[in-house]
Amino acid sequence: MNRMAIRMASILTLTLPLAAWAAPDPQVMTLEQQVTALQVDHALALTQQQAQALLPLLQSGRTELQALQAQRQATQPALAAALTQAVSDLQSTGAISPTTSQALSAARPQPPPGGSGLRSIWQQARQILTPAQQQALATAQLGAPDRVPGDKEGWRSSRKPFRMMHVFLSDPFLALVQSRAG
């Protein structure tokens, strides 16, 4: 086996145990979501009218996100089987077989035709906010200060719009918006 094949086999073999080790505690995840939702809620200080306008958008986005998550979960057994076969292929022959490559491609969740509507929902939600609120969102420190060492914003800035959309669609933030909507 060549060095590259050995390295790929090692990476694939180590990925699953490492992912299990790095999996966060559900209670910690829930508390982090609550902290972040409260930070965003305080930064925005939504009016009742804004909350009422945001609520249907957030509920629609939450439904779409749940559908995407269900699709991903449904593909996990097939993906795990294909990855296991890839490890086996690499260990035995040093290369992933064409059949295994096809199985890997088929097992990965496919994006919905026309893309996800989450981006559109996020854009509509931002239009409800005032320029000052949008600026507050852009500069808000999210999560615990030590979340990513050396990251002054709490999350890596290149991922912040993606993370912010997930904050908006989280159960804790949705509950806060519902309470503001009256």
Please give the radius of gyration in angstroms: 21 Å
Q: Which percent range describes the beta-strand content?
A: under 5%
Total DSSP E strands:
0
Overall, the morphology is: elongated
Determine the mean pLDDT.
Answer: 80
- Give the number of helices: 8
Tell me the structural class.
Answer: mainly alpha
Major β-sheet annotation: none
Q: Please, could you describe this protein's structure?
A:
Helix 1 (3-22) runs antiparallel to helix 3 and helix 2 packs parallel to helix 8 (171-181). With 182 residues, the protein is mainly α. The longest helix is centred in the middle third of the chain and has 46 residues, at 48-93. Mean pLDDT is 80; it is low at 147-159. The chain has helices at residues 3-22, 26-44, 48-93, 98-107, 118-128, 131-139, 160-168, 171-181.
Provide a short characterization of the protein structure.
The chain has 182 residues and is mainly α. Helices cover 74% and strands 0% of the residues.
Main traits of this protein?
182 residues; mainly alpha; 74% helix
List the helices and strands and how they pair.
Layout: H1 3-22, H2 26-44, H3 48-93, H4 98-107, H5 118-128, H6 131-139, H7 160-168, H8 171-181
